[in-house]
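I hope you will forgive my troubling you with a question about protein structure. The record follows directly beneath this note:
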Amino acid sequence: TASGRADDPRRHLRPCYRLPMQRSRIRIGVGQVSSIDPETTAWARQLGVTTFQMNTPQIPGDDGVWHEADLRRLRDAVEAEGLVLEALENVPVAFYDKVMLGKPGWEDQLERYCTTIRNMGRAGIGILGHHFMPTFVWRTDLDAPGRGGAGVTAFDADLVHLGNKVVYPQAPPTERATLDEMRRNYGRFLDATLPVAEAAGVRLALHPDDPPVPSIGGVARLFTSPADLAWAMERSGGSPAWGMDLCLGTVSEMEGGPEAVRQAIDLLGPSGRIFYVHLRQVKGTVPRFEECFIGEGSYDAAAVIRQLIAVGFDGFLLDDHVPHMTGDSPYGHRARAHAIGYMQGLLAAIEGEDR
């Protein structure tokens, strides 16, 4: 069926249950942090987590570049808290908005982006996550009712004309871009950045388009199906510096739901193209879906972890988006602790099955 389920939503993932398992090198991290604060770092240590990922960290970059000294200070600050800064996800959109749309000035922005990659390598930070969404992540509701009254985000393609409920520091572009134009622009991005990343020892992790719809605001979306991810992998030319931030929430929003998740892991995993994973879940697929707690969504999270182990994934899992629970902080410490604990329990149980 279009949703990817016939009589059982987990039927596509069941073969992974029977594969022999060895103890994986998968680890669980804390993500979506933009600045260092003692409360969050202590909370991470209390959860038994040492892997740390930061999203658009609050460091200087007025000239469109993250500088080596600032990146080193950031890494040192994280390490001083007993954590390991394994990845940064997303430079500010203003660093490469012209690159994404092919606007005048894209060459200068792209050279500055390459300078940031070099500086990350010198600072000892090995992964830079990126997206190619000029119209950003899009939601039509930020407080839909979830389990027990928790607030969750939702998307309805029929309501896109009412605007994006997700707040960003700059407005979506007014330009239009076709699929061919966006593919040209991403190809230029890869041609410029991948040789630099290889030389710097930095890996570039692509996030798929969220939501995975054909276009928003007149701008085509590039990465909305497993076939699109296959195109990107081929376009990377075999560079070891290209891979995915495999957002399972986004992939399960694609047509097919659980089947799209299975296909993406089978496509990317065996060649080591999954650098890290956003393990979040949604109910439904485009054109309508809503986020939810882990364990409620369309794919079987345990089966997915088994499949990741089977294809040799050795990166880290992140909590990513979470529902807003009663009395929670703006960052979502309660909901994130639930998600991280859920992943820790699944991973420990799965790793212990064949002992």
